[in-house]
Amino acid sequence: TMAWSESVDTLLANKDGLAAFRTFLKSEFSEENVEFWLACEDFKKTKSSTKIASKAQKIYSDFIQADAPKEINIDFHTKTHISQNISEPTLSCFDDAQRLIYSLMAKDSFPRFLRSEAYKELVKKQQNGNQKRWLPFL
């Protein structure tokens, strides 16, 4: 739990850290950011060209297009660029948007998560658990 505070990468790479971060973002009504980031990570691993097109369309309709159900907050230029290229998507078509959202999470959501009561509580639980493990006579 303590290691999660090292970086957003450490947090996102850890299953429990990711779950805790998602819960925190839900409480702030901004979980679409981490969901978009995860969708992009999954998208970049896509091998089949037919799946690339369908996954790209799904990401676009879920997160990018105007009034998308989980619309992310990205600048007009980036959104327009994606909209123009979505008909022939490449594995890198969401890279700019993903970088923006990653940066937003790293600079804004992540520091707030580390200051949150939820995170402090998880750290405290882990520390208490570790003490019990190392001091069985207590």
From TrEMBL:
Source organism (scientific name): Fregata magnificens
- For the RGS domain, which residue ranges apply? 7-123
Gene name, please? Rgs21
Pfam families in UniProt: RGS
User: Which PANTHER family does this chain map to?
Assistant: REGULATOR OF G PROTEIN SIGNALING (PTHR10845), REGULATOR OF G-PROTEIN SIGNALING 21 (PTHR10845:SF160)
| Classification via InterPro entries | RGS (IPR016137), RGS_sf (IPR036305), RGS_subdom1/3 (IPR024066), RGS_subdomain_2 (IPR044926)
This protein is called what? RGS21 protein
